[in-house]
Amino acid sequence: MMQLQSGQLDVIGDIPYSIVPMIKANKNLTLDMFDSTKIRYLILNTTKAPFDDPAVRRALYYALNKQELATAITGPYGTPVAALVSPTQGKWSDSDLKVTPYSPEKAKAALAAAGYTEPVQFTLSVFSGSKVYEQIATLIKSEVDKAGFSCKIELLENAALSDKYSSLSHQATVLMWIDDIRDPSEVCGWTVDYDQCDAWYTGLRDQKLEDLNDTAFKEQDETKRVQMYQQVQQKIYDNANVIPLFSTGFAYASSNKIHGLYVSPFGVYQAMDWTKTR
Question: Would you put residue 182 in left (φ > 0), alpha (ψ -120 to 50) or beta?
Fold first, then answer.
């Protein structure tokens, strides 16, 4: 930010939303918000207690205040989401899935119905080098601790965190996804294909879902394909091993001498289209 203000840099991307007011207040800088396919997800390890129990995983739908998460992290620039595929993908996203309103009492009731009378304990492991992820973890803890859970936050360096969830040694973590193409096959495949990454580091084997996803990937009729991918997203929602939290756009700050800046929903920009005035 200091380099941008001094003119050493012309453009900075993926800026934290906490500095947006500073950018808006500077007459020499421009803030640009671009649509994106970026979503942050809660990733649950289904091979370890307590998230080996689907009832516990589904209780989190009531225990998570997605609106609070979106607002606290991104201000007016984030949106809580329920479907795995980004709303920016249009028809490919299952718009029939709705965000569950935050209800600690319903979460407690769901856990009690499943036989849990004491707070369900788990550790949330997140990247220590990111203020955003630390803030997300703190908010999640404050929300779920009121809803029949007891969450402990574990901060790890990137390599240690990657090793932990890659080996299915974690209980829960928060990860991000950005699509590369206008198609749902990437994120859906990553989430349900066990051989790729243990179903996005959740360890869930669902062969029927994998078969459905494979059929959807190969289907040539677009209308049928849309329907199949929406079924895939419904099943992922029912499994509750990967829980979408909120989506947000790309925030870029630039000198007001820069013109033609554009970033696609897939995080791609072409600097050859930019111009700079003296």
Answer: beta
